[in-house]
Amino acid sequence: MDVKACNYDVPKRDGSVWPDDICPAYTPRRDAIPSIKGCWYCKYADFHLKEERALEVGICQWPKKVIE
Q1: Among 25, 21, 23, 53, which Cα is nearest to 40's?
Q2: Which of 2, 38, 57, 59 is the most exposed place for a label (fewest CB within 10 A)?
Q3: What is residue 7's three-state secondary structure?
Q4: Dmax over Cα atoms in the chain, in whole Å?
């Protein structure tokens, strides 16, 4: 399934986000790759990364930090 990345003007608070989406609130997690920006690496996106199986589509939890 090909999903086009979205550039949001404002955070998509409580909305679904794809790994390559990005918005002005992007704040990288500690383990983020500096040259790659997107919700997958944002500390506000919840992709259940600490669970056994990560989600393909995350939830924007801005302004609450989810993962450092």
Answers
A1: 21
A2: 2
A3: strand
A4: 32
